[in-house]
Design a protein that fits this description.
CATH architecture: 3-Layer(aba) Sandwich
Bound molecules: guanosine-5'-triphosphate, magnesium ion
Shape: globular
Number of helices: 5
Radius of gyration: 16 Å
CATH superfamily: P-loop containing nucleotide triphosphate hydrolases
Number of strands: 7
Strand order of the largest sheet: 1-3-4-2-5-6-7
CATH topology: Rossmann fold
Strand content: 15-25%
Structural class: alpha/beta
Helix content: 25-40%
Number of domains: 1
């Protein structure tokens, strides 16, 4: 997809705060520090639109970005960071699951995992939740630049095995925000999700 414009819309801490427009939305979710914000910047070919950090838990709100004036990317807070106090962890769950469950314009959830490690229990739980709710989703295994081709092939195979088959998508795609590896495939999935959401039924 040709990117003609990107803009930060807002950070939302509660449902009342979500943008009202009904543009299709693609959400990015995964463990803290896994590379969600980097994936967004890399897909868009921009630096620093979504804030990245080597400190886990940097993104605490839902951050909305407007792309080509046509659809939204939503950078969700990361889960599973142990040093975050329990109260915040619980509010994370509520903020994110409320968004995922209620947002009608959500057309695709992109779950990001680290290609160097097996998907965690939380990754699996989230995936099961998305499947149970019939939410179209895709898994992106990022930081693939840190692995050899051979290691990567094995790790993608493992991730597919652990996450299992899913009725609402759930393909596992290798990615690198450093080299742009996997970019085409992820964009194809996004375009398809956006187009499907806009075709007359
Ligand atoms: N080598 C490599 N490093 C990456 C890649 N993607 C992200 N990183 C690094 O991983 C760290 C975390 O990236 P972020 O994009 O901030 O991660 P996040 O998931 O948005 O983190 P939170 O918002 O804190 O949950 C940063 O130091 C990035 O530079 C990648 O594909 N390859
Ligand atoms: Mg982030």
């Amino acid at each position: 997809m040709k990117i003609t414009s990107t803009a930060f819309v807002k950070s939302s801490f509660s449902e009342q705060d979500w943008p009202r427009v009904g543009l299709p939305e693609v959400a990015f979710l995964g463990r803290s520090n896994v590379g969600k914000s980097s994936l967004i910047n890399s897909l868009l070919g921009v630096k620093g639109l979504a804030r990245t950090s080597s400190t886990p838990g940097r993104t605490q709100a839902l951050n909305f970005f407007l792309i080509n004036r046509r659809f939204h990317f939503v950078d969700l807070p990361g889960y599973g960071y142990a040093r975050v106090p329990r109260a915040i962890r619980e509010s994370w769950g509520e903020i994110v699951t409320t968004y995922l469950a209620k947002r009608e314009s959500l057309v695709l959830s992109i779950q990001i995992v680290d290609s160097r490690h097996d998907p965690s229990k939380l990754d699996l739980q989230l995936r099961e939740w998305l499947t149970a709710y019939g939410k179209p989703h895709l898994t992106v295994a990022t930081k693939s630049d840190k692995l050899s081709q051979n290691e990567l092939r094995k790790s993608i195979g493992r991730a597919r095995e652990i996450l299992g088959a899913s009725a609402s998508g759930g393909e596992v795609v290798a990615y690198s925000a450093v080299t742009g590896y996997g970019r085409e495939r992820v964009w194809r999935a996004i375009e398809e999700a956006i187009t499907v959401s806009h075709s007359p039924s």
